[in-house]
Amino acid sequence: MASAATLGLALFRRKPVRSMAEQALADAAHGTLRRSIGLFQLVMLGIGATVGSGIFVALTAAVPVSGPAVIVSFVIAGITAGLTALCYAELASTMPVSGSAYSYAYATLGEFCAFVVGACLLLEYAVSASAIAVGWGQYLNELFGDVTGWHMPDAITQPPGEGGVVNLPAVALIAICATLLIRGAKESTTVNAILVVVKLGVLALFGVIALTAFRSENLVPFMPLGWAGIGSAASMIFFSYIGLDTVSTAGDEAKDPARTLPLAIIISLVVVTGIYLFVAIAAVGAQPWNAFSDQTAGLAVILRNVTGAAWPSILFSIGAIVSIFSVTLAAMYGQTRILIAMSRDGLLPAVFAKVDPVTQSPRHNTYIVAVFIAVLAAVVPLNVLVNLTSMGTLTAFAVVSLGVMILRRTRPDLERGFKVPLFPLVPVASVAFCLYLIIELPRLTHLLFLVWITGALLLYFGYSYRNSVLART
């Protein structure tokens, strides 16, 4: 009984919440990550991690599920993300450190819950990075075909199950992203900012051209598959809001994080939601909703149909290539920073927290992440796993919202650079929306998620529980 009681207490041991000044001093003492990322770069990081596969791929996959009401699906996903963004902003201003939802859970819900959240974050980053890297090879091949008339063989550009053997372009993309990350956070986020500006321009051009073919009759019937279709589509596209979490993983490297992190999260959300709604309205208004079901590159096809020319497809393929590059870069960045935070706490081996003394980047960590993601992207069919990204994201978002409520009650004395308005209605609504979207995910997704969490629990009780820094203090 005593050992069971001890175990119970250990599962809920919490990491002390430090003020921003204390955390900065601790970082300086460890000589770890450099604060080199400003507000603009943080906003570009959030947009870059968010605007990508969610609009280039998921939109055309979600329309057959919901019809023109996919617009409502984007609104529901945006509201859920917005409510959670406010909760993220409060915790980011209170605890401006790397680790995002993992670190917040450690300080509010305890070690066991934090480890599970960390496992969710690692799942969503790894699977999303792998899946979109596969898409990068496909868009690259399409561009080659439009420009030169030559296509790379399916064996090296498609995943297994779709005619492929090894997706070499995906591996190349991950290698390029890893190289940039190893050079340092400032360099990689600067490149990301440039890529984000380019792809936003391409999406704006798409919207303008598609709106010239807008027909109100294409929106009728608006809800052909009812509310069930709207909910399913909202769950399907929600993974694209992972960028909100990516911003908060930069807590150790952001300048004036108590101010810039909340601002970057909220600004990113507003910009991304506006872009999604603009492109979704333009797309479903330009052609009947049932025409999306047989399109593998739906937005490019819409441009070709509207203009009757090949150049829009070429331009859009370039935009997709740029977009997927920046999303992969941001996803890999987020995963390496989650691993740093968990390693510092003793929940993962120390190799994940080692920082290169010259570039101030986690070189060994990045190598391990790159190899793992490259293997997934190169040889594993990922179609069934895409919804797992939404599952991990929604779980982490719900925990963040719970964390706000718990911390308000247990530590009302903490200095907060930003406070959630209409407390506690906003965090309660955030949790409710997240649970709704989780329920709407396919049952297979729930089963695969359970398998992943089971593996994480085996790791926790086999290694992390005994090696935790808190266990040794």
Explain how this protein is built.
By secondary structure, this protein is mainly alpha-helical. The chain has one domain (34-467): Amino acid/polyamine transporter I (Up-down Bundle). Helices cover 72% and strands 0% of the residues. The chain has 20 helices and no strands. It has helices at residues 2-11, 20-30, 39-50, 53-56, 58-66, 70-94, 100-108, 111-148, 154-157, 168-183, 185-211, 226-237, 243-248, 257-286, 298-307, 311-344, 363-379, 386-410, 425-440, 443-467. Helix 3 (39-50) packs across helix 11 (185-211). It is globular, with a radius of gyration of 22 Å. The relative contact order is 0.20. The model has no long low-confidence stretch (mean pLDDT 80).
**Record field, number of beta strands:** 0
Mean pLDDT: 80
Secondary-structure element string: HHHHHHHHHHHHHHHHHHHH
Fold-level CATH name: Amino acid/polyamine transporter I
Distance between the termini: 23 Å
Shape: globular
Q: Are there runs of 5+ residues with pLDDT below 50, and where?
A: none
Summed up, the domain count is 1
* CATH architectural arrangement: Up-down Bundle
Range of helix content:
over 70%
Rg, alpha carbons = 22 Å
Strand content: under 5%
Total count of helical runs of at least 4 residues: 20
- What name goes with the CATH superfamily? Amino acid/polyamine transporter I
Q: Note the main sheet.
A: none
CATH class: Mainly Alpha
User: Which structural class best describes the helix and strand composition?
Assistant: mainly alpha
